[in-house]
Amino acid sequence: FRRAHTLTVLFILTCALGYVTLLEETPQDTAYNTKRGIVASILVFLCFGVTQAKDGPFSRPHPAYWRFWLCVSVVYELFLIFILFQTVQDGRQFMKYIDPHLGVPLPERDYGGNCLIYDPGNGTDPFHNIWDKLDGFVPAHFFGWYLKTLMIRDWWMCMIISVMFEFLEYSLEHQLPNFSECWWDHWIMDVILCNGLGIYCGMKTLSWLSLKTYKWQGLWNIPTYKGKMKRIVFQFTPYSWVKFEWKPASSLRRWLAVCGIIFVFLLAELNTFYLKFVLWMPPEHYLVLLRLVFFVNVGGVAMREIYDFMDDPKFHKKLGQQAWLVAAITATEFLIVVKYDPYTLTLSLPFYITQCWILGIILVLTWTAWRFFIRDITLRYKEIRRQKQEHRHEKDKCLSNGDGHASVLEEQNGNRLRERRP
């Protein structure tokens, strides 16, 4: 039934597109016809994928919604592959086909400069530095970390990613000017206010979802209009709730997996800044916002697939399809950045920054070796030693039973052996 339904929809859509094409006279504009043909091809593919793609772990608001984003992931990955195989100039000018205002080099905004919280030299507004930093990216930071918390579902992991990204901004501000921010912009506005408040609200939402009673009664079986409206709103909440318990220190496999998740998250965050830098997209462009919306939808599914694979590898024998696509998209974006501007990426880190990262890597490797190798060997040695002591104690206890006859016989046997020696 599902296959027949799909073929019917595809047939109707193809006929509609063909009918529209026949009705109007085809323009003699090659660029316009190319864009229109590509858009129509993508629509047909999305229609096919929404009905035929494999279902993911989420079923609300509808499985077709998540199949749609899976197909969008495929289209976006193909687009990235196409951009990757172009020259730098052609790739940047190709963005004009999406928006004619693109393809023009744009100056980067420097968020550093004057870092005085109170500027006495400015008589009209001494706090002008703070107001200059309060732009549209402040609520974007808050909502971004709120949604990331819903995806990761772990407080300490979100905080580590948030703090680590600020360290990355410190480390890479010699490559991208807009990474240069004031200290209070890094730690007060970003980590504490925007990111911290977003993580806090996200954790409160997770607590509500974990305590919420899920009763999925049919819409037409609810007698009141208020109940019907409430049921419609709850359609956009999860069908059931799974609490993520990552337990990174429980095994080496989970520790490496959590480190890999943090690494991919940080790389995807960096790709946001580097992509708009190499493709000449302004930060407020709608394509940047669409990319973030895309990652919010596909990232939640990917995180659930990764957790299911880690939590029960016998049942989930392979990693989910959306998780693989997110990893491939992140890697392809990084390859585009490397190809389009290798000079910026190869700018050497300052010596003190290099020292800090080397020290951090050594500490992480040392802790990993101690936790999963040295500590286990030490615990195993102590357990073997304890078992030997218990066995020796039980043996001595057995020999001491029988009013000392066993110990007397043992002493007599020892005396006979001494007499036989020359």
TrEMBL record:
One of its GO terms (cellular component) is endoplasmic reticulum membrane. The chain crosses the membrane at residues 6-24, 36-53, 65-85, 155-172, 184-203, 255-274, 286-303, 323-340, 352-373. Keywords: Endoplasmic reticulum, Lipid biosynthesis, Lipid metabolism, Membrane, Phospholipid biosynthesis, Phospholipid metabolism, Transferase, Transmembrane, Transmembrane helix. InterPro entries: PSS (IPR004277). The keyword Transferase applies. It is an enzyme of class 2 (transferase). Residues 392-422 are annotated as: Disordered. Its EC number is 2.7.8.29. One of its GO terms (biological process) is phosphatidylserine biosynthetic process. It is found in: Endoplasmic reticulum membrane. GO terms for molecular function: L-serine-phosphatidylethanolamine phosphatidyltransferase activity. It catalyses: 1-hexadecanoyl-2-(4Z,7Z,10Z,13Z,16Z,19Z-docosahexaenoyl)-sn-glycero-3-phosphoethanolamine + L-serine = 1-hexadecanoyl-2-(4Z,7Z,10Z,13Z,16Z,19Z-docosahexaenoyl)-sn-glycero-3-phosphoserine + ethanolamine; 1-octadecanoyl-2-(4Z,7Z,10Z,13Z,16Z,19Z-docosahexaenoyl)-sn-glycero-3-phosphoethanolamine + L-serine = 1-octadecanoyl-2-(4Z,7Z,10Z,13Z,16Z,19Z-docosahexaenoyl)-sn-glycero-3-phosphoserine + ethanolamine; 1-(1Z-octadecenyl)-2-(5Z,8Z,11Z,14Z- eicosatetraenoyl)-sn-glycero-3-phosphoethanolamine + L-serine = 1-(1Z-octadecenyl)-2-(5Z,8Z,11Z,14Z-eicosatetraenoyl)-sn-glycero-3-phospho-L-serine + ethanolamine; 1-(1Z-octadecenyl)-2-(4Z,7Z,10Z,13Z,16Z,19Z-docosahexaenoyl)-sn-glycero-3-phosphoethanolamine + L-serine = 1-(1Z-octadecenyl)-2-(4Z,7Z,10Z,13Z,16Z,19Z-docosahexaenoyl)-sn-glycero-3-phospho-L-serine + ethanolamine. It is a multi-pass membrane protein. Pathway: Phospholipid metabolism; phosphatidylserine biosynthesis; Lipid metabolism. PANTHER family: PHOSPHATIDYLINOSITOL SYNTHASE, PHOSPHATIDYLSERINE SYNTHASE 2. Belongs to the phosphatidyl serine synthase family. Catalyzes a base-exchange reaction in which the polar head group of phosphatidylethanolamine (PE) is replaced by L-serine. This is Phosphatidylserine synthase. The lineage of its organism: Eukaryota, Metazoa, Chordata, Craniata, Vertebrata.
